[in-house]
Write a structure and sequence with these properties.
Radius of gyration: 22 Å
Number of strands: 15
Shape: globular
Bound molecules: adenosine-5'-diphosphate, magnesium ion
CATH architecture of the largest domain: Up-down Bundle
Number of helices: 10
Structural class: alpha/beta
CATH class of the largest domain: Mainly Alpha
């Protein structure tokens, strides 16, 4: 899949701009705070319906304006597609695919695909299980709308069960809980089974990518919790049994203490936990390897690579890792942002776009 064109109107610090991207590597460079991340953020919005930044939709509308529009044209083996989104300061965003409004944001998924790496992705390694679950949830949602909808459903039932657990009428809770447990176990089992499959698929790709970037020096492994194994109906039974066993605890704490919302990933290099023992460079490389593994899953699932976005990924890698990463990225369309293009080996070979003050500016590296 290749994104040919990106159009931004009143999006963040852009007033109006059109980007043309080529196959292979595109280098988007510019000083700090000029609009590099903003441009790739727009791409990710069009792929998934939301931003990788924890941001409110309305905040993307250029200060002083009331409406923003972003649009991209992409080509895949399935044909051409144009995805557009409109943001307003006084109402919710909306989206169209080939001019047809989408009723739910979930319908955007799978039209244009990208995998996004940004420095904040280090959270994936360093921080709470929540960030690792988020990674799996976003990746899986992009390849499976079924997963996206299942996750929404699970979260809704979970919050209803948690509300119930907070009620003061203990007898009523004990009477009502089994009903919620049945639907929560059903929804939860679906999530867990799909995640288990996904992680088993991801893990060898992540190991390979990491070996490739480190020149064979480091062996990365990724494992799920696998506390619940087997097919969906087996997991459902295990969950139900655990809800019963945990009822007292859940009642005491006022929330559901087990299930897929508590899962984690184990990410190791050479058998030791990267989160605790890895250097900053190893953690960065590991999170990039996970992203590259994600691109391989797209390839397996859809027969073609997504667009890889590497936002500020290069500056903290040594030269050899940069070269190897670039080699791997060269298999697919890649958008790389950086302050100085010369961090990219042989950058002049690629499509260079220089950004300044929310505009594409002419520069010696421009084509
Ligand atoms: N809604 C908005 N309206 C106007 N400017 C914005 C808006 N949101 C962000 N910006 C500006 O965008 C700039 C940051 O752009 P960004 O793409 O993150 O920079 P970088 O080039 O370093 O990646 C900041 O100057 C910020 O003030
Ligand atoms: Mg940036």
């Amino acid at each position: 899949m290749v994104i040919r064109k990106l159009y931004l109107k009143n999006f963040r610090n852009y007033s109006e701009e059109t980007f043309s991207f080529s196959d292979g590597i595109n280098v988007i460079s510019g000083d700090n705070a000029q609009g590099k991340t903003n441009s790739v953020e727009a791409v990710f919005f069009l792929c998934t319906g939301y931003s990788h930044r924890a941001t409110r939709d309305k905040q993307v509308v250029r200060r002083g304006e009331t409406h923003a529009r972003i649009e991209c044209d992409a080509e895949s083996a399935y044909g051409k597609v144009r995805v557009a989104m409109d943001f307003y300061t006084d109402k919710n965003k909306s989206a169209t695919v080939n001019g047809v409004p989408v009723a739910k944001i979930g319908e955007l998924l799978g039209n244009v695909n990208s995998v996004f790496f940004s420095p904040s992705e280090l959270k994936l390694i360093q921080e709470a299980p929540e960030d690792r679950r988020r990674f799996i949830d976003i990746s899986l949602s992009q390849i499976s709308r079924g997963y996206f909808y299942a996750l929404q459903k699970y979260k809704k039932i979970l919050s209803q069960r948690n509300n119930l657990l907070k009620d003061v009428d203990r007898e009523m809770i004990i009477d009502t809980l089994p009903v919620w447990d049945v639907s929560l176990a059903k929804a939860g089992a679906k999530i867990i089974a799909m995640r288990n499959d996904y992680i088993k698929l991801l893990s060898p790709f992540a190991t390979d990518a990491h070996l490739a970037i480190t020149g064979g020096e480091e062996e990365l492994s990724v494992e799920g919790d696998y506390k619940y194994e087997g097919d969906e109906s087996e997991i459902e039974k295990q969950l139900l049994a655990d809800y019963k066993e945990r009822m007292e605890k859940d009642l005491e704490l006022g929330y559901t203490t087990i299930g897929p919302h508590r899962d984690d990933l184990k990410i190791k290099i050479g058998g030791t936990d990267v989160r605790t023992y890895g250097s900053q460079g190893q953690q960065r490389t590991a999170s990039i390897s996970l992203k590259l593994a994600e691109t391989e899953i797209f390839k397996e699932k859809f027969g073609e690579y997504p667009t890889l976005i590497l936002d500020d990924a290069m500056s903290e890698l040594d030269k050899r890792r940069r070269e190897r990463l670039l080699y791997l990225a060269g298999k697919m369309q890649t958008l790389i942002t950086c302050t100085e293009p010369d961090v990219i080996p042989d950058y002049k070979k690629y499509n260079n776009i220089r950004i300044g003050g929310g505009k594409i500016i002419q520069g010696e590296t421009d084509q």
